[in-house]
Structures are given as C-alpha cells and as structure tokens.
Amino acid sequence: MPTELEELVGFIAHPSPQIRQVAIENLVPFSLSQPSIFKTESLKPIKHLKFLVRDIPKIAEHALTILINLSGDPEVLENVATDDRFLGIAFAYVTDPAEKNANLFAMLLANLSKWDGLKSLLSRKQPAAEGLGSNELVLNQLIDLFVKGADGSYNKHADFDYLAYVFADLSKHAEIRQHFLQRQEYDGVVPINKIRVFTEHASSVRRKGVASTIKNVAFDVPSHPAFLDEDQVNILPYILLPIIGGEEYSEDEMMSMLPDLQLLPPDKQRDSDPNIIQTHVETLTLLTTTRPGRDLMRDINVYPIIRETHLRVDDEGVQEACDRLVQVLMADEEDEAKAGNGEGGDAAVIEVDTDDEKMVEV
C-alpha cells in the first residue's frame, strides 16, 4: 500500500494546476531526504517530472529542482540522460532568451553530462535562437550561450554559470576535446579561446568549470604547441594569473615572466578556491609533457610563481601539485636523456587528479 508521500507524488500529474503546484512544491525537500518515493512504478514519477518542466514557470521550477536533486541517482540519471526527446526540450529551453528557468536547465544539464552517452551532443543540432549568433550545433550554442549570457544581456533571468560544468565533464571525451580546439567556420573562433577569459570571473562555479575544461583539453598532447603559441590559444596567462598573488619578486625573476604577470599591484589576490588553484597547477604540469613546454615554462620563469603558491596556499592538494610541477621544472634534461632514450625529448605523461565535478543539488 502506498505511503502518504507516495500518494502525494501521484498528485504531480493531477489535471488541476493548483493541485499540481501544491503537491510538487511540498515534495521538493523530499527529493533530497527521501528520493526513493520518486522511483516507484518503474520511475513513473520521473516521467511526470520530465513532462512538468514545460508547465507554468513555478511548477516547472519545482520539477527541475527535483530532477536536479534526483539525477545523482544512477538509475534516474540514465533514465533522463537517455531520453532523447527530453534532451531536445532541455536544449531548446536553455537557449530560449525568455526562459525564466534557464539556470535550472543549465544545472540539470551539468548533472546529465556525467552520463557518458551525452558526448553525442557533438553531433546534435537544433535551430539557433535569434540573437545568439551561433550555428545549428547544440554544443556551439551552449558555448556561445555561456559567453554571451554571462552578464545577463541574453536572458535577464540567467547567468548560465553551470554550463561550465557541462563543458568540464564533456571534455573528458577525446572527440569533445578536439572540438574545443578546432576553429569554427561560422565565427572563425577556436571554442577554448571563448571560455579561457573566465578563469578570473567572479563566479566560483564558472571559474571551476572553466579550469577543469582547460585541464581536460590539455590531455591532448598534440595540441600543446597551439596551447602555448601566443598567436593561437596562448593559454599560459589565463592559467598563471589566477594563481599569482601580489607578492614581491626580485627584478630578475619578474623581468623574465610573461608581460601580463609583471608589475601586478600588491593587492592582487590569487584565486580563493584551493581546488581551482590545484587544477591550474595540474594543467601546467600537463603542459610540461613535451620538451618545448618545459623549456618555455623555464624561460618565462614559472618556478617562482609556483614557489610562492606553495608557500602561501595552505592546502595539501595544492602543495602536492606544486611539488610535482617543481620536480619537472628543476629536473636536469641531460640527466633525463641519459636515463631515458638518450634524446632529451618528451617526458612521460604526468598523472593528475581527474575526479568528476560533484553533482549539483538545489
């Protein structure tokens, strides 16, 4: 016999919008405390929730919130992430400039992107919304939405910060990494160059997702020359600025650094989130995989920045990441060559932490 809560769940499909709204509003807290009540009858309540995201804004808001909270469950995640029709609805709504729940759709997509099959997004198309300036490829629309929507000028109801987590999870797939590095015909821009500018954004969600995306794309070793080239991706200033503070360096140390890092004000703050700092240091370590990468980081004096980061950030993960990078930068290439293949070429790929972003809860 169904419990009172399970009976209440049944009312979210009631014909009366007033009854639906009261029921679903009261059920939101239970999506975290008793999620099993939404998994009865072969996930029938999940089917209703997916339908309700198109209801009046307030009901849709609660339906999305519950789906976001439930998508941490593998069974629910698979059900929602493999529903092609629902995905089409979600992508259409998140790119609608008038959608009031666009941020919640972005949060739900951030959780759904943990389903490996969502990498099929690479070939998914839909008509681009007017004013977005994108092409028909949904992935490009999400990237352009992330960029143009950051200041609320595209949709006054949303900032789209959580799309950064979508990119972070999707970029764990090789084909998505390649997309982020390929110049797009419709606007002539390399996608990674669109998001790199947010490594010092006010939103920690946006910074964290972008940092993870950059790190994941950096696993593509053949792309490192483009990453380091000032006329292509030129990623180093965007990685180093968030991890450098306003500490003083000797004139000799400073003059060898990148121009963007010289003469910073004494009140310059490094990123407040140690996890983001660790991610950037791990990306630098990935970029030392090749000899040219190591040589460049020595030439632009990355070591003093890492030295000060190690001293000033009291976090075990950051300090261990700094130690690994310093070991590479301070290694003697001639000794490495003698111990290795005798050519002093590429080093072994450095192992870094690739833990998934946490599930979003509301």
Automatic annotation (TrEMBL):
Organism in which the protein naturally occurs:
Apodospora peruviana
Segments forming domain Protein HGH1 C-terminal: 283-336
Q: What is the lineage of its organism?
A: Eukaryota, Fungi, Dikarya, Ascomycota, Pezizomycotina
Q: Cite the Protein HGH1 N-terminal domain residue spans from the record.
A: 93-278
- This chain belongs to which protein, by name? Protein HGH1 homolog
- Family affiliation: Belongs to the HGH1 family.
Record region (Disordered): 336-362
For this protein, the record's Pfam families field holds:
DUF383, DUF384
